Amino acid sequence: MTDVPTGREPLLVVDEVKTHFDTDRGLVHAVDGVSFSLDRGHTLGIVGESGSGKTVLSRSIMGLLPKRDVVRHGSIRFEGEEIGNLGPKSMRRFWGAHMAMVFQDPMTSLNPVMKIGRQITESIHTHLDVTRSFADELAVSLLASVRVPDPERRMDEYPHQLSGGLRQRVCIAVALAAGPQLLFADEPTTALDVTVQAQVLDLLEAQQRERYMALVLVTHDLGVVAGRADDVIVMYAGQVVEQAPTPTLFAQMRMPYTEALLQSIPKVDDPPHTRLHAIPGRPPSLVDVPVGCRFAARCEYVQDRCQAEQPPLLDGPTPGHRYRCWFPVGTPEGRAALERNRAAGITPAADGTTAVPVPGSAP
Amino acid sequence: MPERPVPGPPTGDARVDEPLDDLVGAATGRGMPVDAGTIEIAAVETGPEVRRRRRRGIGVAGWLSLGWIVLVVGLALLAPVLPLDDPKEINTAIARRGPFAEAGSASGHLLGGDYNGRDMLSRLIWGGRTTLLVASAAVAVGFVLGGALGLLGGYFRGKVDLLVSGLLDVFLSIPAVILALALVVILRTQPGTDGGGLDPVAALILAIGLVSIPVLGRITRASTLSWSEREFVLAARAQGATHRRIVFREVLPNVLPAMFSIALLGIAVAIVAEGTLSILGAGVEAGTPTWGNMIAIGRTQLQRAPHVVFEPAIMIFLTVLSLNMLGDVVRSRFDVREGGL
């Protein structure tokens, strides 16, 4: 690898990216103004629940969006080159060779009628002018590097002969085939058995370090990014609601949504039959986005101001920490807001539309 | 969801890198809702016995059909080297002689003679040669052209698809027999000259082939539509594959089984079409036997020599039946189900 960062611009700079879909129901604000930057050798975790726009965001950066009815704004700079407005034809030279993606479901992201070896050598041949036998050797070594046992034999097998964990390793090998500098992993472990999730994540991390790649790890599980990402972006309803270096995020989270996400992870040392902590309701419609804070309807801290006025991304006490909240967690304002709500018996409604007082729920 | 019993230890599959029964145990032990159906199916589908059974079976009917097709095609291919009478040679001694007539000079003419005294066995085999050539070549034309249109429409969608679908619909809206008839007539007459035009066999191939385009095109388009939505197509795109590569390497191999099973049925339909066109007088000229024109010519003497019509009719019947059977076998064997993956 020759291009060691020289302290100039980071590998990827995303500035106020918006991706809207023009549908019959109206304009869907799938991604609504996201900014971040990412350098080689670093890992960015993008966390949010289903429909928060994290997948659309990663596909927007890759340029892998449907052709029609898409409205894109903002700037995406890759190695200093503006790629935010490029069409698929111009993006093709980046795909595979500069940026690649590992998809969520290894059951469907491999071609069922193509041998494993071919799926990898296809990628190699697309970008490198090498002989067939060299590509085969390269593919075997790629399979070995993603710790697929007995790689020579696997080359001649079809995807259905492999388990889910092995298939995801093959997908990673395919993505790495042309040596990208930037790898997107879109919920790479969601479709896998719990037992192999950690293995696949460790593998991604090892490859990221070994190849000095930038890694974007998209997930709905804060636990996944906790030990692996350098920075975390928490997304809600198409927006960044909190953004911080990982240790800061976990030590001083400010956004009630982040807190709620963290609480919704079941803990091993909970006694049996502990109620799972769920965030009530659903994310708002991305067609008619609420005026105020988009999380207000489901927030335990909600105040009148939240319903009326959208908070901007505010700077936190630590550099690089930004959050979108009027009554942040862990601040006197936030604590006061929570107390007030509890005293008044206000809890978020289960349907996530409005916060209404529930009789008898006050402590 | 109906409660299904969690199966016992699965039939053992060394390739899976985490033992399945451990997972079942772990999941149920933790009191998580286990979709027993899914686990059962997974275990059953990967069991070695089942895999062997699936690989083995095309069934008795399948083997019989395959045997018949191999026989008919083999005879047709070997017709020039087989010790057969000349299909055009007239031997009045066997005129209108029925099959299996042992008497006198008819010995050796196993299936009798037609009304002119030409050997039926020889005519059936030579006729099969022409009929099968016309039918398979016609379907090949439809396969390539219809397949190309279907792939284009199904993969690129939008305006391309609108054009392709429109074209196919227009084709489909004209009754097939009338269209084929018209095409044969047009193809056989050179504009501005008397007659001329294409050789009758070539004209027939093109006419039936063009008529078979919409059927193959639609099947291919439908199959392509669903396969190009798959994530592996997006994954290939994200690896920088060109459209051409994706269509030919990723989509086409998955679409081919559906195309093949329809093509087999298409050959059956084309055989019948050849017969129909012959009866309508638009087939190959009478001198060259085909199953179709044997029926067409023989029907004038149906009462005096029924075997002249029935023998080619039985050939068509058995061949069409076998092709349908094989089409079914192909479809069911290559039907890639999600569960099986």
Share of helical residues of chain B: 55-70%
The total of helices of chain B stands at 12
Q: What is the chain-wise order of helices and strands of chain B? A: HHHHHHHHHHHH
Q: CATH-wise, what's the superfamily of the largest domain in chain A?
A: P-loop containing nucleotide triphosphate hydrolases
Which stretches of chain A are poorly predicted, pLDDT < 50 over at least 5 residues?
A: 351-363
E-strand count of chain B: 0
Tell me, what is the CATH class of the largest domain in chain B?
Answer: Mainly Alpha
Question: What labels would you give this structure?
Answer:
heterodimer, A: 363 residues, alpha/beta, Rossmann fold, 8-stranded mixed beta sheet, 12 helices, 14 strands, 31% helix, disordered C terminus, B: 341 residues, mainly alpha, MetI-like fold, 66% helix, 0% strand, elongated, disordered N terminus
